[in-house]
Amino acid sequence: MLTRDELGIVHLVLNTDCNAWDLPKTAESPGVCRFCYRERNRVHTDEATVRRVIDRVRAESDAHRIVFTGGDPVMPYDNHLEPALQHAQAAGFETNLHTNGLLLADRYAALRDHVTLYSLAVDGPDGQSADWFRGSGYFAAFQANIALLVSDRRRLAFNTFTTAASLATLPSLAETITGLAARTPVEYWLISQYRPIGRANSRKADLYAYDREAFTEAVAHVRGLLSGTGIQVYDQPTRAAEDPYPFRVWVLADGTVTADLGSVAAPSNTVLGNLLSDGFEPLVRRAFASRSTTGTSTATSSEKEVTAP
Asked: Where are the alpha helices (DSSP H) in the chain?
């Protein structure tokens, strides 16, 4: 049995595609979500299999939370999200839904009773700054989602991607988040910097890469602004080769288990096997051992709480 200290959070991927392309880019933007390594869907499963996957994770771990991520899990087709959330909740997991929220209102009625925490992406405090990253109309959709969730007293979290220029908007965004925390619970704010993860290209680097020290200083400043609010501020900076990523486990809804073994140069997560045939605990312990042989260590509890959208 994997203890909660060993693995407190499991990321469940129902699909690997995303609907971010549905919004047009703004006139000033280089493109919608160009910082992301999105792909076509490669998860093929059914509702019964998703339930078996969740049951196996429950049987072999004391993890307390499942993060539903992707891609984006709120899609315009049946990816078994609602029954998966319901089953995870019934199995005793907290559920964290990571989404851009573009289709959240359409599926909210079926989701609301089974989601512990809604993690929404927002990269600026207004339409001009936020839409530059994620497309024309994104911030308006974000505001509509916030109005819906705050009126319903849902627990929130936020994910923010940055550029050198957008660092200056973080204090304003901190003010917005602080205001929301006065109206509904806010658990955390994750702020991220461009991370090459073995798939860097010069175009993305020109758009998004900047000095890590500037990022660290900016996050420290907004962390001070949120001091006393109870909101945890996490940061995901650019990593040097000798600075491994935190250990995290992703479970695809067909049972495939992958893990980030820490290498900055790796082009993708390491595929460990399928938990339906190989078991969940043995695969995770294999990943622990592989990480140990490379001289890296598992993440702290706080590092495992969150993942970029």
From this structure: 47-60, 81-90, 104-111, 127-134, 138-151, 170-181, 202-208, 212-225, 275-278, 280-293, 301-304
Domain range summary for the chain, segments of one domain joined by +: 9-304
CA–CA separation, 22 and 197 (whole Å)? 26
CA 77 to chain centroid: 21
Query: Crossing angle, helix 280-293 and helix 47-60, to 10 degrees?
Result: 60
**Residue pLDDT, tens place only, 49-98:** 999 999 999 999 999 999 999 889 999 999 999 999 999 999 999 999 99
How does DSSP assign 210-274, residue by residue? Answer: --HHHHHHHHHHHHHHTTTS--EEEEE----TTSPPPPEEEEETTSEEEEE-S-SS-SSPEEEEE
Is the pTM of the predicted complex or chain greater than 0.85? yes
Domain 9-304 has CATH 3.30.1490.270: no
CB atoms within 10 A of CB 275: 24
186: Cβ contacts below 8 Å, ≥ 6 apart: 155, 156, 157, 158, 177, 180, 229, 230, 231
**Could you give the 3-state DSSP secondary structure of residue 188?**
strand
